[in-house]
Specification:
Layout: H1 4-23, E1 25-30, H2 37-50, E2 53-56, H3 64-74, E3 79-80, H4 82-87, E4 95-100, E5 105-109, H5 114-123
Parallel strand pairs: 1-2, 2-3
Antiparallel strand pairs: 1-4, 4-5
Length: 130
């Protein structure tokens, strides 16, 4: 069980992270440990090249230690931020959000490469989702 202090720190980090994303041009990839290990590693390496961030809703088995062990095993790094899942109404993974710097975002869900997803979103001239 998480201590109140841990929950408060996580909440504060989530608020700061959410605010920073809305104000900057950013690519966020929503993922989960339920995805194949190879898919997580592929998204991580693509994200690293483009300066994108991988985000998960919560901890593996509700444990910081289990989460850390799995990330080390896969050699990936992710942020934990359930508020972003709510903010962008992400209900399935992988989902890629492209925030334009004015708080507007485009969203695509499905097992596509990051570069393919960005190409599709760049060609799509419809209004961005919020």
């Amino acid at each position: 069980m998480k201590s109140l202090q841990q929950l408060l720190v996580m909440s504060l980090i989530c608020v700061i992270f959410s605010s920073a994303i809305a104000k900057s041009k950013q690519i966020v990839i929503f993922v989960s440990f339920s995805m194949a290990d190879a898919a997580l590693q592929d998204y991580y390496h693509e994200a690293k090249k483009l300066g994108a961030k991988l985000v998960m809703r919560g901890l593996r088995n509700n444990s910081f230690k289990d989460t850390q062990v799995k990330m080390q095993e896969l050699r990936i790094s992710v942020d934990i931020d359930p508020t972003l899942f709510e903010q962008y109404q992400v209900t399935a993974v992988p989902t890629i959000i492209w925030v334009n710097g004015q708080g507007n975002a485009k969203k695509i869900t499905g097992n596509l490469t990051l570069s393919s997803s960005l190409e599709i979103m760049e060609k799509d001239n419809t209004h961005a989702e919020n």
